[in-house]
Amino acid sequence: MKLLFTGFAPFGGDQVNPSWEAVSLLPERIGDIEIARRQMPVEYDRVGELLREAIAQEQPDAVLCIGQAGGRACLTPEMVAINLNDASIPDNAGVSHAGEPICADGPAAYFATVPVKAIAEEMRRAGVPASVSYTAGTYVCNNIMYHLLRVLEQEYPQVRGGFIHVPFECGQVLERATMPSLPLPLIAAGLEAAARVTAEYLESGKQDAAGAAGYTH
User: Fold this and answer.
1) Which of 41, 44, 40, 67 is nearest to 54 (CA)?
2) Per-residue pLDDT tens for 5-18?
3) What superfamily does domain 2-212 belong to in CATH?
4) pLDDT at residue 208 greater than cutoff 90
5) Global pTM?
6) How many alpha carbons fall within 13 Å on the CB side of residue 19?
7) Coil, helix or strand for 118?
8) Close Cβ partners of 33 (under 8 Å, ≥ 6 residues apart)
9) Which residues are catalytic?
């Protein structure tokens, strides 16, 4: 079994992005699971096509995209991506959006097809603070999650996909004393837990997308 993890490059003036740093800490294998990884740019206009290329090259059984949510105190597997680009800051290419759809002919939303609730539960079992989130925002994180689920639905219906937000890592908050953070090894441990429960879900044969998000074991 193969899982593809993606993380983002730094943005917003930070020198690191804990999503990619944590993905980089993952081992090549987690049990019987082969781990592939790709860094994605924080750019609306590129992430969809780069993600499609990565999926075509790696042929994974599941894809988990990871992104930073500064201000959150725990890891948050996302339940849903909405068809909206709307953020107060530009992306790393200087592109801004204010209320435009991601795909003009796309549905209003896509739900994750990995077991979101079970992922959060397994993270907590591993000693990692986690909770389910019902908003992936309207910036590039939500954009890549929407593209991911659309590509999988249209081109790889047997592949499961989801998104996990992670908080700042500790080094990012030295000048932001009131902001929550977690150590990178703990964030990576949470991603390992997500890989394990996603693989368990796939191996169980419970392939109905409608039941995926709330699957528990």
Assistant:
1) 40
2) 999 999 999 999 99
3) Peptidase C15, pyroglutamyl peptidase I-like (3.40.630.20)
4) no
5) 0.95
6) 29
7) helix
8) 1, 2, 3, 195, 196, 199
9) 78, 141, 165
